């Protein structure tokens, strides 16, 4: 695959993922319509075939009616397959979107540049010689500001 | 209404798709039994074929619908969980 077709492939896939995850329900109205039509169209020949087969004693005529009933069963199974296929597609799209969000979260730097303690933001109060966690009891309720690197870590919360 | 009835009603409302699946399976089994009794009650193929259509084909359709409803329920549960996780992570990211 060339790089252009790879990019196009990813754009098309991203668009289909966005379309798939944008619905608030698992099955879109068109999915319900298609599956409903297939189920109805498949179910309709069965009672017709039953009436036709029970109205005759000719073997070949009854076989034809039986074949019609089987066609109906196959159409119902196709409708079931379409319904489940669309469901699986949406669930996979949602799982892909979740993986994208997780990847983005994992790609975030663990240590913010300029943070003395690394990881969590460290704060201090004017006049203090140490930097603290924002929830440290020594700074709770006090006017805090981001700590600079020249401060020592707090012995309580570090 | 007793507590057990209320709990059953709540369960059926919450799991309506699985309830339909179970109902379809039970109906399919009943139809198969009726069809079997009907077919075994006559030696004439001309009388047996309508049973095959009415009981056999309809039972297959009911089993297919039952499978569809049960798997749909599982898919819906999984989709809701994934969606909730994704939204929670997205909200958490925007709050940081």
Describe the structure.
The complex is a heterodimer of chains A (158) and B (96). Chain A has 158 residues and is mainly α. Chain A has helices spanning 3-22, 29-43, 45-54, 59-107; strands at 123-125, 130-131, 144-146, 152-153. In chain A, the strands form two sheets. In chain A, strands 1-3 form a two-stranded antiparallel sheet. A two-stranded parallel sheet of chain A has the order 2-4. In chain A, helix 2 runs antiparallel to helix 4 (59-107) and helix 3 (45-54) packs antiparallel against helix 4 (59-107). The mean pLDDT of chain B is 90. Chain B is elongated, with a radius of gyration of 22 Å. The interface between A and B is medium-sized, with 40 and 28 residues.
Lay out the secondary structure.
The complex is a heterodimer of chains A (158) and B (96).
Chain A: H1 3-22, H2 29-43, H3 45-54, H4 59-107, E1 123-125, E2 130-131, E3 144-146, E4 152-153
Parallel strand pairs in A: 2-4
Antiparallel strand pairs in A: 1-3
Helix pairs in contact in A: 1-4, 2-4, 3-4
Chain B: H1 3-14, H2 16-40, H3 45-95
Helix pairs in contact in B: 1-2, 2-3
What is the total tally of β strands of chain B?
0
Q: What radius of gyration of chain A results from the CA coordinates? A: 32 Å
- Class of secondary structure makeup of chain A: mainly alpha
Sum up the overall morphology of chain B in one term.
Answer: elongated
The N- and C-terminal alpha carbons of chain B lie at a distance of 49 Å
Biggest pleated-sheet summary of chain B: none
Following the backbone from N to C, one meets helices and strands of chain B in this order, namely: HHH
Oligomeric nature of the chains: heterodimer
Indicate the proportion of strand residues of chain A: 5-15%
Strand order of the largest sheet of chain A: 1-3
Sheet having the most strands of chain A: 2 strands, antiparallel
How widely separated are the two ends of chain A? 52 Å
Count of DSSP E strands of chain A?
Answer: 4
Low-confidence stretches of chain B: none
Mean pLDDT of chain A: 81
Number of helices of chain B: 3
Uncertain parts of chain A:
none
Report the β-strand fraction of chain B as a percent range.
under 5%
What share of residues of chain B is helical?
over 70%
Mean pLDDT of chain B comes to 90
Number of helices of chain A: 4
């Amino acid at each position: 695959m060339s790089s252009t077709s790879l990019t196009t492939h990813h754009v098309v896939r991203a668009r289909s993922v966005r379309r798939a995850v944008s619905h608030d329900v698992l099955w879109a109205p068109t999915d319900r319509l298609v599956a409903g039509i297939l189920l109805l169209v498949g179910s309709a020949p069965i009672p017709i075939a039953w009436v036709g087969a029970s109205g005759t004693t000719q073997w070949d005529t009854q076989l034809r009616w039986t074949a019609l009933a089987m066609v109906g069963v196959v159409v119902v199974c196709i409708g079931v397959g379409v319904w489940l296929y669309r469901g699986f597609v949406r669930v996979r799209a949602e799982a892909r979107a979740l993986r994208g969000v997780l990847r983005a979260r994992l790609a975030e730097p663990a240590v913010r540049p300029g943070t003395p303690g690394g990881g969590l933001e460290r704060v201090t109060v004017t006049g203090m010689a140490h930097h603290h966690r924002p929830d440290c009891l020594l700074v709770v309720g006090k006017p805090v500001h981001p700590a600079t690197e020249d401060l020592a870590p707090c012995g309580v919360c570090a | 209404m007793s507590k057990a009835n209320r709990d059953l009603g709540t369960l059926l409302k919450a799991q309506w798709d699985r309830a339909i699946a179970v109902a379809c399976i039970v109906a399919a089994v009943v139809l198969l039994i009726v069809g079997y009794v009907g077919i075994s009650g006559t030696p004439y193929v001309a009388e047996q074929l309508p049973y095959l259509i009415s009981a056999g084909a309809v039972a297959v359709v009911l089993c297919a619908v039952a499978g569809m409803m049960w798997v749909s329920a599982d898919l819906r549960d999984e989709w809701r969980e994934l969606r909730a996780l994704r939204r929670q992570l997205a909200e958490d990211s925007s709050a940081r």
